[in-house]
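We emphasize that the prediction below concerns an isolated chain of 361 residues; any contacts that depend on oligomerization or on bound cofactors are therefore not represented. The input was used exactly as deposited, without trimming of termini.
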Amino acid sequence: MFGQRLRLARKRAGLSMRRLAELMDPKITAQAISKYEAGKMMPSSAILVGLGKVLDVSLDFLMGGQVGKLERLEFRKKSGTLARDRARAEAIVIDSLENYFAIEEILGIGQPGDAFKGMRCDYLASEEEIEGKADELRRSWHLGMDPIPSMCALLEEKGLLVIEADLPESINGLACHALRTRSDYPETDVIVVSSRTNVERKRFTLAHELAHRIIHSTGNPAIKLETAMNRFAGAFLVPSEHLISETGAHRHGITYYEIIRLKRIYGVSAAAMVLRLGQVGILPRSAIERAFATFARAWRKDEPEPIRDGEGFGAFEKPSRYRSLVWRAVGEELISPIRAAQFLHQPLEEIEKRIRGPQVQ
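Result of the prediction step, given as a token string:
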């Protein structure tokens, strides 16, 4: 494991073995680094500390303890993303999961049941069937047809780990399966979103990743997998039945005011909202094409009247389970305030203030 972590940290830093050796204090050779990464040799404690300083990673990250490896990594990235950026994102995820799994172990939390049992499929006969799968999942989870207040909270409740992190600018998010070092734990589904992503895109990304947990394959050359994921995400976030009740079944056109109102009702982007109006059949195809040829042309890049943090869906669309677990461990005196500060990356003074609460004069 150490060799894998060292290689990842070196790639994240964009360093060759030779350059890393040159920067090290105490001095080592590139050949020694090669042996470390191949698992043929372990460094002394002094060299280990030096590696951590040069690579700007913790010793916990290098030595590992909870995360065995990440499998089936799927990046949501821009074209031309560098290998260094992918390595940096992977390192960020591993570092976050080390803490996440550690606090779960401290609290003795086991693995949740399978929230997708009986829901998975590997064949879709039509795009209408995708809509049916989204509605079926809502019924199975007793969600009704109203807008979902928080996709983060919903997925965390269903056993997926959701992490928001400061990813490289070229990467919007990623999904993977994390294997723990303990063999008695099954693999864990992990979804990571960039802290730079706006609320609308974040919710759609989470719904898109949820779709991947339901639809493994379309089994149909007429339906591309990513197209099916996007259709599921739209149907899950904006159920046709609810949308029709808001707009009417058939429209010749729609105003900008109405689109902004709808995007704020459902927490999706204006572009996704226009596409959804076409998918449901509320607007004819000609109206959708005209919209993206005129007033909605720039909406795929620039979100009109974006939902702000702390406003509407922006007040709820944050992962909260990890933080809640840390504070639970503090309350049960299973970890010290100092350890809580390390887990939450906050000053000890702030942690102690939140433990004491307001002081009466």
